[in-house]
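Re: the 480-residue chain
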Amino acid sequence: MNKDNIKAVLQFVSEGRLNAVINKYGDGVPCATKKEAIEKVADLVFNRKVEMSEVKTIDPSAVSAPVPVIGGSSDLNQIKASIKTINDDLTNVAKIAMDAVSEARDIDNRIVALHDEFSSKLGAVSVDESSVRNEVAKVFASFKKATPVEELAEIASALPVLSRKKACEVFDGDLFYDVDGERVDFSNLEVDVWDDVHAPKRVNDYVFQPRHLHFALVALANKLPHNMWLGGERGTGKTEFVTQLASRLGRRLFRINFDEAIERAEFIGGNTIESGNVVWKEGIVTQAIQYTGALVLFDEIGFARAQNLAVLHSVCERSPHRSITIAETGRRIPVADHIAFFVADNSLGYGDASGNFAGVRDMNTAFIDRFSYTLKFNYLSADDETNLITKRTGINRDVAKMLVKFANSAREKAQAGVLTQPPSIRQLFAWADAVRDGLPVGLAFENAIINKFPADCESELRGVYTAMIDAVKLKSYLTK
């Protein structure tokens, strides 16, 4: 939970318990107000000096010394027990919030009933009704909850509930693959599902490559997950892989698009002027690392300058001490549990040897080493790509098959260095949409494919088009 969610839960803990926690785990100085106590205890919970379950059950008179915090362990049973405890805590918090919603609604209903009864009796009194009603309204207003019912309901629904499911219950398609003569079936692999309301929208026709999916699920299985580098040609589904992984696992995704001009302040944060004062504003990475269970995607990171990425080394380190220190404020921000970092890039971190992606730089070896696994993405098989184009655009399968034949022939030329880049699946979607909607096949090809390439590629592309595309036959398929 982030600090705002922690504070929302602490609203329902008595002031006596809060001060008992401060006395036992904090600086020992009790707070004069509950608001101050909530702030102190929220910091203790956020920094993991005390568990939320103990805050809710501590004896208000407890003054014993703090219980030492047990460090991380590789023992599988302890990890499973920790995951169960976290899940139980979140479930209890959600229940407490929903109980508070119900209680608040009951109070509001009683207030309304009393107000109506009082107002009806005023009708028989010969006084200035409007002034009396105003005074009555003021009195009853003081009894209302400080936190509106709608806000409590929103807090309760926003709390991510962690559950364990089998991979086959979460992911469609093939959950097996063959390697070294052996079939690897991971359909019964247990995975964590977070049910976060901020998770990305699901795209049902996305096709996962089983090997990559298996690796990703294993990498995410721990409280301190492994980071992953995804490399490959454009249009092979790298970015969508992370997006749909987050969608199906119910985890929030933070995506940062890098380019040569991006500065540290844009993704980490920096000073800005507000109302004449200098204030420090968090960047997207700083926000992301405080959000438990988030997936963080560094997209097209090969275009960024190395000096701007140096600050990410300590964040991406696979260590329980991973954190970032803000130079402007001196504040150290630890990376929350279960956060995993992904890179999606056209290269595997060592620049672009093909010359197809101008501006892609070599990455610092130390930075690459922060990513435990490197997955190389390739295009879908001809059959899978044909099925995807058919599902996504609604076009006849025979038309989609012809477009895929063109694309694969052009991709072979790109690999041979004849074309500077291969056609992407996005371009095939656009071409299929155009011919489906009645545009001439040749004109659709020109605007969706030809004009997307450098001028020196035109003759080769037109040659592939002539060899692979029968415009008359293609148009006849459209009427089927």
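The chain has four domains: 3-57, 81-158, 192-377, 382-478.
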